[in-house]
Amino acid sequence: MLNQIDLSRTDLNLLALFEVVLDERHVGRAAERLNLSPSAVSHGLGRLRRLLNDPLFLRTPKGVVPTARATELAEPIADILARVRNVVSTAEPFDPATSTRRFTIGAPDGVSAVVAPALLAELRRRAPHIDVSVRQLLPPHASAAFERAWQPALADLDARAIDIAIVPLHDIPARFVERTLYEEEFVIAARAGHPYARQPTLDRFCRTRHLLVSLTGNAHGFVDEALAKRGRARRIALTVPNFMMALAIVAETDLIAALPKQLVAMHATRFGVVIAKAPFLLRSDRIRAIASKAALMDAGVAWLFGVLQDTQQVRRIGRGKHA
To answer: Into how many domains does the chain fold?
Structure first.
């Protein structure tokens, strides 16, 4: 690890040089992109090799190839540069029409798949150079305390690992701001023609093999809690780590699954799935956009927070007209 003296003598441009050489795999092309001479790039690589104590790039007849150490460093260096660029960009007045920032949104894929189309359409119209990274958020373990299960999302916001979280969290600490984007409920999804869909009784529900979305593979969810209160149980034949995978597998098998209604409705025709009647009421939640008050002091994050709210309001209105 670099100590404080090393860092004080380190030229950040060397990391940018590393990034370009890694991308181009050629010193000459990297020099053109950086508007430097090939000898200047070679000199910079020499300094970087001494700093990181590794050859980093090996010459070949067609250019250079990264060493194992360089490949290992690629992701952390890219992360460092992304954070630096983000810090620098926030120091400038934010103009969505010209900004080239990248924002990170954390959400379950069952939420991001619903929110993303309208958001991307708005960004294309108003902020064509802004990019978005979506980070999958799901409770890391099954928990009887629903609120506690989503606490890691708040930790990610505090650490600025994400700019905005979109999750079904109810009790929001005072250091955060929340806005409800839409109401969501779970439904039973099954392939078209599934026997359960034709006769959706509690007995058949319990006999049918189920699929559960679980980040860790823990085969226990809120449906199992509801069944236990009725003295019943079901068989979880398969767990998968995200909702879109669940939807695709349900479409091709005899498994059924409790999935977000809006996700299923959006992709029912594409996947050939139907919404089957549940034998009892399933969970419903408000999907909220959440950001820390500190993050919202950044004009860019505040703008994106407002765009998320506006696009989902328009989407709700549009869906109501077609209901």
So the answer is: 3
The contacts of residue 263 (CB under 8 Å, 6+ apart) are 110, 113, 114, 243, 244, 247
Domain co-membership, 60 together with 112: no
Q: Where are the beta strands (DSSP E) in the chain?
A: 57-60, 63-66, 102-107, 131-136, 164-167, 176-191, 209-213, 235-240, 256-260, 273-276, 284-292
CATH (domain of 269) = 3.40.190.10
For β-strands 63-66 and 235-240, DSSP reports them as unpaired
**Does 271 share its domain with 298?**
no
On whether residue 108 sits in a domain, the answer given is: yes
Does position 1 have pLDDT exceeding 60, yes or no? no
Q: Over 90: is that where the pLDDT of 91 sits?
A: no
pTM of the model as a whole? 0.70
Question: Residue 149: is its pLDDT beyond 50?
Answer: yes
Which tens digits make up the pLDDT trace of 206-256?
999 999 999 889 999 999 999 999 999 999 999 999 999 999 999 999 999
- One domain for residues 280 and 188: yes
Look at residues 39, 58, 90 and tell me which one is the last residue of a structural domain: 90
Q: Nearest CA to 163 among 204, 130, 117? A: 130
Residue 128 CB: number of other CB atoms within 10 A? 12
Structure tokens at 271: 């996947």
Instruction: Report if residue 188 sits inside a domain.
Output: yes
Shared-domain flag, residues 118 and 248:
no
User: Residue 66 is part of which domain span?
Assistant: 4-90
A 10 A CB-CB count for 235 gives 10
Task: Provide the sign of the torsion angle of the four alpha carbons 228, 234, 239, 244, taken in this order.
Answer: negative
- The helix/strand/coil state of 155 is helix
Mean pLDDT in residue range 290-310: 94
